[in-house]
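User: two proteins, same treatment. go.

Assistant:
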Amino acid sequence: MPTLNREMTTVVGFFLVSLLKWETVGLVELNQPRHPFTEAAMPPSAPAPEREGAPRTG
């Protein structure tokens, strides 16, 4: 038989989760969990080459 402390912790936990809608993992990340990590690990892309006719700033 659970103690009163354990019962209150469980009830308060269920109440807070339903109230605050905590979500640790987005649904999109469930299908491809490595995608954010591989995207962050890729080196930055090279800047686009400047066009000759474009005005320069700076």
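Protein 2:
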Amino acid sequence: MTVELLKRAVWFLVFVLAQVIVLGRIHLLGVATPLLYVYFVLQFERNYPKWAILLWGFFMGLCVDIFSNTLGVATASLTMIAALQPYYYELFVPRDSVDDLKPSMTNLTPVKYSYYVVPLVLLYCIVFFTLEFFSFFEWWHWLLCVVGSTLITLVFIYTLEVVKSK
């Protein structure tokens, strides 16, 4: 368990640093920002303690907020995704599978993995940009940010999955 916790802590640092130093500065066409750190929360295996997923999500969001100056937007959004992830993941895992099955394209089929990842990333982007804008006067810009960031985040997530499977 200690080795697994250490690995998770290293990945935590990698995702926070990647977001803060590199990905947070990317704004394609002024609307699409990769929010890859949500992938960290999506990777918790089946039967991982729900309270621990919430804590990991909260602290990752807090770290991103502190270094990105987003005033709790990432914390609230990522904590919400961390609360939903264990229950949503159960929908895609067969009942007779092992207890510590990790979500990936190799463990699930690519279609099931897409059904798992796409709605959670979309929901994350909707909540994130709704809290960030806190106004619907520029709803078209909000919509472009949600769609653009969701698409670029999904491209990064699928790229990581392909690299991880090889």
